[in-house]
Design brief:
Length: about 300
């Protein structure tokens, strides 16, 4: 449970992981209706499939490597990245994309939550080619409908939304790609995250580049978990944290995620694709990844 829910105290939650048992956590199926899936990219599918078996372990995990102890999931959403596919506006669509608010009871409770954790497990196809980079699912929030589309270089109403998605770079280097309200405090805090953080405020912030690697997901399941704590209105006390297989790899505080009580944690932005912009970001061949064990808990 520590990999998918890496916090000890929480109020309630949900999971599609059949191996996770807790009286506070509702068991649900990996199905759109049960998980509150909405705003689905019409050109892309997220087929429910039986994923391929994991690759055998070549050698014991390094000392301190918090490798997942959960059995492999039986079913997963499959993402196909065809040769030449790039971001959602590209000529060849690839990956998939939608928003996910969780089961009805959880989504209702989320309206009043100030802190929550969301997670999933993912596996990348053997022989994966990283090219320049791409994104995998994350979390989002903000003021009403302004919380949607808080990506892709959007400038309007940036103070009314936030979006966090992990991103791989060349050679599997990982980071957290962040769209936050453009305040001086946010900029300073995000750029201070080690080992390296980069500002491109038109297109977001690359936070904690090389804090982890995605190569561990090639042919094997890894757990990705996010914690979001909203700031009190008028204060810079928001927090974010990212775990990979239960290990905290990126964490920062002193943030502003909202400027009014209308700013809410909305759920997961379940989006994945190659890109970046430009054909040099495109997948060089047909590739696949799988996503399963979607989970969420309300901390406060």
């Amino acid at each position: 449970m520590d990999q998918l829910i890496p916090v000890k105290n929480f109020i309630s939650g949900f999971t599609t992981c059949q191996y996770l048992r807790n009286e506070k956590v509702e068991q649900v199926a990996l199905e759109d209706k049960q998980l509150g899936v909405h705003k689905v990219w019409s050109k892309l599918k997220h087929k429910l499939v039986q994923p391929p078996p994991e690759l055998p372990k070549a050698e014991p995990a390094p000392c301190g490597d918090n490798e997942s102890s959960l059995p492999a999931p039986e079913y997963a959403w499959e993402a196909l990245y065809p040769e030449g596919s790039i971001n959602p506006s590209g000529e060849i669509p690839g990956g998939f994309g939608f928003y996910l608010s969780g089961p009805p009871a959880f989504a209702k409770s989320l309206e009043n939550a100030s802190e929550a954790v969301f997670s999933y497990r993912m596996m990348i196809q053997e022989g994966w080619e990283w090219v320049k980079g791409g994104k995998v699912p994350g979390v989002f929030g903000g003021n009403g409908d302004l919380s949607y589309g808080c990506t892709g270089g959007r400038q309007e109403e940036r103070c009314q939304c936030f979006n966090l998605r992990p991103m791989w770079r060349p050679n599997s280097v990982g980071e957290l790609y962040a769209y936050f309200p453009l305040t001086t405090e946010n900029r300073d805090q995000l750029l201070a995250v080690p080992p390296k953080s980069i500002e491109n405020s038109d297109y977001g912030f690359s936070v904690g580049r090389d804090a982890f690697r995605f190569d561990r997901a090639v042919g094997r399941w890894i757990a990705v978990a996010f914690r979001i704590k909203l700031n009190d209105v008028g204060c810079t006390n928001g927090e974010i944290e990212l775990w990979i297989d239960g290990q905290s790899v990126i964490k920062t505080d002193g943030l502003t995620l909202r400027s009014s009580q209308d700013g809410k944690i909305k759920g997961m932005h379940f989006q994945t694709f190659f890109g970046g912009n430009g054909k040099d970001w495109a997948s060089p061949k047909d590739q696949k990844a799988w996503f399963a064990d979607v989970s969420g808990v309300i901390v406060h």
